[in-house]
Design goal:
It is built from 16 helices and 12 strands. It is α/β, with parallel strands linked by helices. It has 2 domains: 145 residues, NAD(P)-binding Rossmann-like Domain (Rossmann fold), CATH 3.40.50; 164 residues, no CATH class.
């Protein structure tokens, strides 16, 4: 069997680095043809020298010469700019595209890959949050598979193997509760970015770590789950599970439940997505029950963590509202990381955009583009 040809968007981020680790451990099964990064040219160069892809793309055009000079002795095509992402996807021979770009930027290259019939290993949840209807309908029309890399969605995906989606009564996305579980809004008002960037269980990038602290990440995951698994608003719930051992749960119409368990390690969902439909042997750490005496669950506090409630409001109404929430959240998180707004003020920015940007019930692609642009401008005004 020939190795799967892999494209990796966002290779220098947390998911990208771990994806390369998985590929290197299973080089007989996977071959990376494309690496891309936004700003981290130094790590991109290092990765390119290591895995020898056909092509690398640095979207920051100011870094093009640096990357090109470093790789000029290698048989690697170096490209630069956002349009180069789509050009590379259009021209390269790829079986699976890992979309590990953060935020809205993942949408266009994902749609281009679907257009070409390339399967998607999805780590960029915002693609489905922003335009889930468009992405999933295009994928269905092209016969493209979307394999989730988010640990919660990978868990649901694994629990549904051999099951009928019509037999699903409800899914429960588990949340660690983040570093501020149990804190009051008064306490949250004093939170700094340094505190918010310390997640108790997972090692992730800055943006998703802040989203986990506000529980917005869980709200975005709920929207993503709707489109991935064709579920209604009433079929999606969140439960706090501080140990992060059970990654999600499916409840069926006969009252039985399936849960997927394992240590909190993103390499497992990456391996499952790349290897599907096969399970691939790995040396990843095993769960030792002797070290985990208690698995506990709590009701999520949407009143304290308002971002989650706002995301569920968008999930219920759909249209372009999830796109509004996503764009406003990206601006709010960036502002928080730059000490321009407080922890609780991120919710105010998002809610303000939800009320001020026009709602579109059945958006098309151009509507999503305009909504994203208008929301970002509005969010900046609200800072």
């Amino acid at each position: 069997m020939s190795a799967k040809k892999i494209g990796l968007l966002g290779s220098t981020g947390s998911i990208g680095v771990q994806s390369i680790e998985i590929v290197n451990e299973h080089s007989e099964l996977f071959d990376i043809n494309l690496l891309t990064a936004n700003n981290n040219a130094e790590l991109l160069i290092q990765q390119a020298l290591e895995v020898q892809p056909e092509c690398v793309v640095i979207t920051n055009e100011d870094k093009f010469t640096l990357v090109q000079d470093a790789l000029k002795e290698k048989n690697i095509n170096v490209m630069a700019g956002e349009k180069a992402l789509e050009e590379a996807i259009s021209s390269l021979d790829l079986d699976v595209l890992v979309t590990a770009i953060v935020g809205y930027a993942g949408l266009k290259p994902t749609l281009k890959a679907i257009e070409r019939g390339i399967d998607i290993a999805l780590a960029n949840k915002e693609t489905l949050v922003v335009a889930g209807d468009l992405v999933t309908s295009n994928a269905k029309a092209k016969g493209v598979n979307i394999f989730p890399i988010d640990s919660e969605h990978s868990a649901i995906f694994q629990c549904l193997v051999g099951e009928k989606i019509e037999d699903v009564e409800k899914i429960y996305l588990t949340a660690s509760g983040g570093p501020f579980r149990g804190k009051s809004r008064e306490e949250l008002a004093q939170i700094t970015k340094e505190q918010a960037l310390k997640h108790p269980n997972w090692d992730m990038g800055a943006k998703i770590t802040i989203d986990s602290a506000t529980l917005m990440n869980k709200g975005l995951e709920a929207i993503e789950a709707k489109w991935l698994f064709d579920l209604s608003f009433n079929q999606i719930d969140v439960v706090v599970h501080p140990q992060s051992i059970i990654h999600s749960i499916v409840q069926f119409k006969d009252s039985s439940m399936k849960a997927q368990m394992g240590l909190p390690d993103m390499r497992l969902p990456i391996l499952y997505a790349l290897g599907y439909p096969d399970r691939i042997s790995s040396d990843l750490p095993r769960l030792d029950f002797a070290n985990h005496h208690n698995l506990t669950f709590e009701q999520v506090d949407k009143n304290t963590f308002r971002n989650l409630d706002l995301a569920f409001e968008a999930l219920k109404k759909c249209g372009n509202l999830p796109c509004i929430v996503n764009a406003a959240n990206e601006i709010a998180v960036d502002a928080f990381l730059k000490d321009k707004v407080g922890f609780l003020e991120m919710s105010d920015v998002i809610e303000g955009c939800m009320s001020k940007v026009s709602y579109i019930e059945k958006p098309v692609y151009d509507d999503y583009v305009e909504t994203d642009s208008l929301t970002r401008k509005m969010a900046q005004e609200l800072l």
